Amino acid sequence: MSHGRVCRRCLNYAGMRFFLNPRHVPARILAHLALDEDGVCSVCRAYARERVEPLHAALAQHVRERLHHGEPALVLCSGGKDSVATSALVRGLSAGPVVGFLYDNGFIPAAVVERAAVTLEQLGVPLLVGRPQEPARRAFASLVLAPDPSAPPPCEACAQAMVLEALHEVDALEATLLITGSNYWAAWTDQPLPAVGLRTPGGRDVLLVHLPYLLGRTRADTLDLLGEFGFAPAQMAGVSSNCRVPALVQERVSQDVGHVPELEDLSLEVLVGHLTRAEAIRELYAKAPAQRRLLDGLFGGER
Ligand SMILES: [Zn+2]
Description:
The protein is an alpha/beta fold. It has a domain at about 55-230: HUPs (Rossmann fold, 3-Layer(aba) Sandwich), CATH 3.40.50.620. It has 13 helices and 6 strands. It has helices spanning about 25-30, 40-50, 55-70, 80-95, 110-125, 135-145, 155-175, 210-215, 220-230, 245-255, 260-270, 275-285, 290-300, and strands at about 75, 100-105, 125-130, 175-180, 195-200, 205-210. Strands 3-2-1-4-6-5 form a 6-stranded mixed β-sheet, sandwiched between helices. The chain is globular, with a radius of gyration of 19 Å. The termini are close together. Zinc ion binds near residues 7, 10, 41 and 44.
């Protein structure tokens, strides 16, 4: 049995301190995270309330048509399985140019970059790799390796830099679609939609699309697609990931505040139907083996 303080639908728990990706869920919803009498958390209730099916379907149709008509698309590619599968999906849907963009914050293993480049090339998607200039690279490294506990988590700084670099590439390519492989809403904005309009530094209007979420793709769909062209994501020291920062942060946060940051991303993947709750719990244990006791306290009875 769980302790009755974990949401029945996702992985959120009462008293949880969101750490890694506060922007993934609008602050007005997070501020009131609580479980109701039925054991369902307020984030789950908000997702259910704010998801408007006809709008979702119309957006999906709109994006398919724009790809079909050959509008240039930039796909954000972290080198992980979701973004590689998304690159393949976009290539299949698009009649126009598709380019991948990987932002190497200094903590992406060279093998991940290399594997992503080779795989995308096989798919017919050239990969651009962006890197921070020298003072910024050092500043980010010290955020990760010598963190200030009162400062925002390093993934926030990375996301801001990555967004800016990606928007510059959108300008350079004259792309009209910017596509991510993330499965949750609002990673970049405060709007509860899987596609939102952005303005680039060059003044261009671009549609940001969370494609797997928009199209209702599940993890099983992703693995099927990857199996078709034989892509296996990199494995690193027990944590399957493409960036070393979450693992580095995880250890510190787990010790300092008794929270596993990966829980947040996995919980959001449950909310949007990408993973089942049981799949997400299994994956959480696999991603944070050193935090097993902490996880047992939350999910021990459900494994
Ligand atoms: Zn929930």
